[in-house]
Design goal:
Layout (H helix, E strand, L loop, with lengths): L21 H4 L2 H14 L11 E7 L6 E3 L5 E7 L9 E7 L2 H5 L6 E2 L3 E2 L6 E2 L10 E9 L12 E5 L11 E3 L8 E11 L6 E8 L1 E6 L2 E2 L21 E7 L7 E10 L15 E8 L2 E4 L5 E10 L10 E5 L18 E2 L1 E3 L5 E3 L5 E8 L2 E4 L5 E18 L6 E6 L11 E5 L5 E5 L5 E9 L10 E8 L5 E5 L2 H17 E2 L2 E2 L11 H11 L6 H13 L25 H13 L3 H18 L2 E2 L2 E2 L35 H24 L3 H22 E2 L4 E2 L4 H9 L8 H14 L10 H10 L4 H9 L6 H6 L26 H8 L2 E3 L8 E4 L9 E8 L2 E10 L2 E8 L4 E6 L2 E5 L2 E7 L2
Helix pairs in contact: 5-7, 6-7, 7-8, 8-9, 9-10, 9-11, 11-12, 11-13, 13-16
Amino acid sequence: MKALLTSPQPKGHSDSPRHRPLCRLFNPAVFFPVMLLISIVGTCPAAAQTTLLIRKLSCEQVAEPMGIETAQPRFSWKLDSAENGQFQTAYQILVASSTAKLSANTGNLWDSGWVNGAESQLIPYAGVPLTSLQNGWWKIRVKDRSGIATDWSVPARFATGLIPGTTAPGQWIYDASADPKTGTSWFRKSISLDVAPGQALLLLASRGYHELYINGTKVGDRALAPDASIIGPWVVAKRVLYVVYDVAPYLKAGQNTLAVWLSPGRIGDNNITDPVTPAFLVYGNIAGQTLVSDASWKTKTSNLTRYYAAIPKPMYGGEQWNDSTFIPDWNKTGYADSAWASATVRSQKSPLSSDIIPPTRRVETIQAKSIVRRTDGSVLVDFGGFYTGQLEARVHGTSGQPIRFAALSDTNKPEYFGQYSQVIPGAGGTALFQHRFHWMCGRWVEITGLTGTPALSDIKLHRISTDFDRIGFFQCSDDLLNAMYETDLYTYRNLTLDGYNHDCTHRERRGYGEHAFATSRGMAGTYDLNAFVRKWLRDWRDVQRTDGYIYHTAPDNNGGGGTLWSSFTVLGPWDFYVQSGDRKILEENEDSARRWLNYLHTAVTNGILSRYEFGQWNFLGDWARPVPPERRALDSIVSNWGDSQQALFFNNGIYALNLQTMNQISSALKKPADVTTWSIRLNALRPAVHARFFVPATGVYVESNQVFSMLAQLTGMVPAAEQAKVNTALDAEIRAAPYIDAGSAGLPLFLDFMVKRSGYHQRFFNMLQRLEYPGYAYFLDRNYNTWPELWDPDRATSKVHSCYVGLSSFFTRALAGVQPLSEAPGYKVFSVRPSYVTGLNWVSYEFDSPRGWIKVHWERVGGEIVLDLTVPPGASAKVYLPARMQTAGSGTNQYRFTP
C-alpha cells in the first residue's frame, strides 16, 4: 500500500477555524473551572446562569445572507450545552436597522418579545415590512428549562435583494464594440458623496461573469460572480442572477469611481456561432440615494479575452492576457476616461433572482511541486494531484509572442479538452498570467513559448470551489477508509462550483441529474448544502418543458441520460426536507415533481413505463458500471442503452422510486387525494414490472445484477413469496462479483441499500478493502487523489469526475450510524445505529446538525463496545443496541455492551 493510504489529510478548508467542530474550539475542561474561579473571587453574588450557548445564527439557512428575496425571512440558531437534559423553553428575537440600535437592545424592525416554545429553526419574521436593498441586524436570546435567560447572542446580519412585487430600476448596458463571444469590457461611473455613507448596498446582475471595483479595490472575494443560472442562448431569458454587495466600506466622502469588469463567461460556449451579448444592470441604495446603470457609464474593451485555440473541439477554451494593452488605473478615481465610449443600452426582460448561496471562492493555493523542461522546449509543471482551479504564473518570453498554458490530466495519453490559455508579454518579456473569469482542470500544466525555466515559486494554482461550511467530520481506526472519505470530499469540492455540481470541470461541465441525486445525498452529512440545493432545484425547474418533461442536466439543458437524470425535483426535495426540516423545499418543487410524474404516466404502456425519449444517449440505464475483470482486455461495454431490457428495467425502477417518494411528499404536505393517486399508480406498476422482468428460476431481475436486485427491494417490487429467492440471488451475485458492481446511476441506490440493510455492512466493508480492480482502494493504490469517470482509470479521459462521489454517506450513516428520521425531520429526533464491523476498532463522527452538535464515538474495549453519544439540546436520539432500542435525551450518554 502506498503512502497515500497511511496518512490521509483533510482537504480544503477543513482545518480553518470556522470549519472545525465546536468541541475542538471550546474545551469544557478549561472553560467551566475558569468560570467557577471567576464566580468565587467576584465581589457580588452571582446570578443563576444557564449552560445553554447560542451560536451559528442563520437567515433562510444562510449565515449572513446578502440578497434574500422574501418579506418574511426565517431565522434559525443552534444550541449547545454541557448539561444533560437541557433545552430551550422560550426565545426573543430583536431585528434592527443598524448595529447601534441593536447594541442598545432596540429592535426597531422587530422585537418578538418572549415567545414560549422549543423551536429554534426557521422562525418567520413578523416585524416592520422590509423593502428592497435593506440591511437588517439581529440577535437572539433564549430561556432554558429552568426559565433562566441566556445573554444575547453575537449579532448577525442579513440584507434584502428584490422583495417580491418590486423591480430593479436601471438599464441593461453593454460594450457594443466588444466581441460578444470573446471580449471582456471595462465600465466606469463616477459619483460624488457629501459624506462616507454608513450603509450602502448595490445589486449587480449580469449575463456573464463580473467583478465590481470601487476606487480601484475589488469588492468581495468571489472567484466567479454570479453563479450559473441558465446557460445557453435559447433559455437565457429564463433567469439572470444578481449579487448584492455591501459597498459602504469602500466609499468615501468626495469623488468615487464605481467600475465593472464584464466577461462573456459561459453564455457563449454552448452556441459559438450566435453568442449571447454580455450585459449587466446596477441598482444601488447608497445611504438612501438610488444609483443605476444607464448610458452615462463609460466603457472600453479590456486587454483580457476569452481564448479558443485553433484546434478541434475547442470546448470551453481559456483566457488570453495581453500585457502591453493593460491599463492599470482603469478602475481608479482620477483616470481620464473622456476617450471611452458611452455604454450602450439594450432591452432586457430576464427575470432576476438573487445569488445567495455560498459563493465560489479560492479555497486553497497549491504550489508547483516540480517543473521539467522537455526536449521539445516546453515546460511541464506538476502540481502533485488533480485539481480544479485558476492558474497564476509569472513567466518570461519574447515581447509580443504568446506563452501558452495547457492543462493535462494524463501525460501518457495527452488530452487537453481545449483548456488553453495564454499571455502575451509586453516590453521586457516578463508577464504575470492569472485566470480571472475562467478555470482549468487537470494535474499538470504544459507551458510553451518560454525563454527560460520558471522557478517553483513562480507557478501556483488557486483551487476554486463553492465555499461550503463543513459540518461533518468522520474518522475511524482504518487509514484506508479515512483516505476514501477525504478523497470523496475532495473530489466533490473540485467538481462543485459556479452554483452546481459538475460531472467534470474540463470536458463537459454539465450538471447531470444522477450526479445531483448521488452527490447531494452523499455529502449532506459533511457540508451544509441546504441553500445550494434549493438554488440548484430552481435550475431544474427552469429547464422543465411545459409538457412536464425535464432535461437531463441543469442549469444547461444538454447531455444524455434517463429517468433518474430528470428526477431531482422529486428525489432531492425529500432528502433535504428530512435533512433540514424545511417544509418550504417540498412546497417549492411539488408542482414540478407532479408535472414530471404526470409526463411519465403518459408513457406507461401495458402497465410499465415505455421508452419516452430516443437517441443514442437517451433513456440510459446504469451508466459507467465496471467492466467485469475477466473482460477488461476486451474493453466491453456493459449494456445500459435505451433499447435494452436492462435500461427498461432500470428506468421502471426509478419511476417506482419517484412514485414512492412523491407519496411521502404528498403525505408530508397533507394532501390525501394526491397520496391516493401516487399509491394507485405505484401499486399497479410494481406487479407489472415484477411480471415482466423477474426470472423465477434464478431469482434475478433481467440478469444477475447487484443493483437490479437492490432496486427491486428498495421500491417494494418483490412479492413476499419471492423475497427469500431474491435475497439468495443477491448473495450469489455478491459472491460472484465481490466488488461494487454499480455505475454512476446505480451507485446511490447501491449505497442506500447498503446503509439500510445492516446485514450487508460487513460484506461492503470487505469490498472496500480490496486493492484490485474495480474499487475505491484500487484508485487510491494508484495514487489518485480524486475519483475518475470510470472504474478503470486507464480508460477514463476524465480523472476528476462525479460518477462515484457519495461513498461518504456509508461512513456517516452506517459505520457511525447517524440518520435523520422523516417523522421528525431536521434531526429533532434522529437514529443512532452504528455498525460494529470486524476490522474496525473505533469510529468517530461529529456532525453539526440543524439543532447542534451530534457526536458519536464507539470503540472496542476488551470484549465490549463503548458507545459515547452527544445529543444537542432539545433533541433526542433513538439508539439501537443489541436486542433493544433506547431513547437518549440531550447531553452526553454512554453505553457499554457486548456486540
